[in-house]
Amino acid sequence: MLAYRYSLMSALKRGLVSGGPPASRLTGYGSHGIGQVSGSLNDLLLLDSVPYELHDGKAKRITDVSLPFVMVTKYEPEYRARIPSDSPSVSLSTLRSVFASGGHGASGKNSYTPFSVTGRFESVQVKGGKTLSGVKGTIFGIACPPWAQEISYKDIQCSFLAEDKAQGGKVEDFEIKEGEVYWAIGGRYHLGFPFDPSYQDMDLES
């Protein structure tokens, strides 16, 4: 599975928060993704080829805004795990163990691992202190390997979109007792560097 990423997380942290590809062009790279919106640094979720801006527990469709950091993939799940109602609930902290349950090579520990969680969530805690309770929807995210933390997100990053397409946010934690987890192991990725002149003046190693 090929993933596309624009810019480096270290550049974003050092102030390169504008420019980048417009949200309307993301489908040229894939169907699902996560990133940041230029200027505001609100969260971006690309779900089923539709881009959404997420802020304060709300979601809205966007088209022309630029994205100073984004990761996109043509999402084709290879593994599936069902969460039965009589089993322990799944949360952000237990996702890695769900991946490992897929068998030899399914953990994705050293690769980019795009994933989704669908069903009725007991709760979804999103950035900004909001908690969405008893809501149906989809979480999409990417589990990043430890070696890539300076160029990508740290560990597992994901966002939620409710079934009504009006609620959502960057996930800080969640609990689901019945649903499904899907994931794939990334094999290749393409990295696009910023053309902004300030990028060349940054010290990205300090």
How does this model look, in words?
This protein is mostly beta strands and 206 residues long. Helices cover 7% and strands 45% of the residues. It has helices spanning 9-13, 95-100, 197-200; strands spanning 2-6, 32-36, 43-47, 50-55, 58-61, 69-73, 79-83, 90-91, 113-126, 130-143, 156-162, 168-183, 188-192. The longest helix is centred in the middle third of the chain and has 6 residues, at 95-100.
Strand content: over 45%
What ranges have pLDDT less than 50 throughout 5 or more consecutive residues? none
Instruction: Provide mean pLDDT, rounded.
Output: 91
Lateral arrangement of strands in the main beta sheet: 5-4-3-2-6-1-13
Please identify the structural class as seen in this structure. mainly beta
